[in-house]
Design goal:
This protein is of the alpha/beta class and 274 residues long. The chain has one domain: Thiamin diphosphate (ThDP)-binding fold, Pyr/PP domains (Rossmann fold), CATH 3.40.50.970. Helices cover 31% and strands 16% of the residues. The protein has ten helices and eight strands.
């Protein structure tokens, strides 16, 4: 099969998504399958890894190799896979709770290592799968039954953290803009090194106020830069609703040497004897 024969449907499984009606993740899934269809790679050459959460269901809804891991551990799983199988295109799917709370430390070091992965985080600023707790990106004054009056905590800023930690490509998109999401995902996947794309994906069940995002998100008025200092200045004044590519770095990706020699199992066991 050549590149011109791929369709988005070739990358979608037979399973029907079970997200809430109106969830932004439906559009993210559509953007992902459209982006994959334009890469010129067959489904069996692509792996989709995830952790736990609404967003982490995506591997089951794609027709690629998939691994549904445990909470917050999608990046180490994907790192091991990419190092062992550098021929694969590896995508990692996460949410703001999975990726920035229990998985926050892995996020920092995945950016630092700069392995050729694409990390897509669907950010709805709430724990949607576990009934609406505030997440690391939730506004400090967001009032809810589980956090009356809000948490009072400063939100985690994913793009700032990604840039400071060494990600080689940093962007934000809105799930409702499927064309922009698709184009940014294509560029993120094709860009060497660790690519991070935050996608604002409304949770209509626990954050119905996020329906307004379709009116308030806006394209950034600045062009992408390859200067991390300039990107940092821009992102520190960001209102959280700017979309587009912020940073394209030129740092060389990490490549591990993987031996084809399977070795002698008996000798390996002997080496670990006490």
């Amino acid at each position: 099969m050549n590149a011109t024969q791929f369709k988005a449907s070739d990358f979608k499984s037979d399973l029907d998504p079970i997200w809430c009606p109106g969830c932004g993740d439906y559009h993210v899934l559509l953007s992902i399958t459209r982006a994959l269809s334009k890469l010129g790679r067959a489904p069996e050459d692509i792996a989709v890894v995830s952790g736990i959460g609404c967003s982490s269901r995506i591997p089951a809804y794609t027709n690629c190799y998939g691994f549904h891991g445990v909470h917050g551990r999608s990046l180490p799983l994907a790192t091991g896979l990419k190092v062992a199988r550098p021929d694969l295109t590896v995508l990692v799917m996460s949410g703001d709770g999975d990726g920035f709370s229990i998985g926050g430390n892995h996020f920092l070091h995945a950016c630092r290592r700069n392995i050729d992965l694409t990390y897509v985080v669907m950010d709805n600023r709430v724990y949607g799968m576990t009934k609406g707790q505030p997440s690391p990106t939730t506004e400090p004054d967001w009032d809810s039954a589980l956090a009356p009056g809000g948490t009072g905590l400063r939100p985690f800023h994913p793009l700032v953290i990604a840039l400071a930690s060494g990600a080689n490509f940093v962007a934000r998109e809105f799930s409702g803009d499927i064309k922009a999401c698709t184009n940014t995902l294509i560029e993120a996947i094709n860009h060497p090194g660790f690519s991070f794309v935050e996608i604002l994906s409304p949770c209509v069940t626990f954050r119905p106020d996020e329906r307004e995002w379709k009116k308030t998100v806006h394209k950034a008025i600045v062009e992408p830069t390859d200067d991390p200092a300039r990107a940092a200045r821009r992102i520190m004044t960001d209102d959280g609703l700017n979309t587009g590519i912020l940073y394209r770095g030129d740092r060389a990706p990490y490549h591990a040497h993987v031996s084809d020699d399977e070795g002698d199992v008996a000798a390996l066991e002997t080496a670990f004897e006490i």
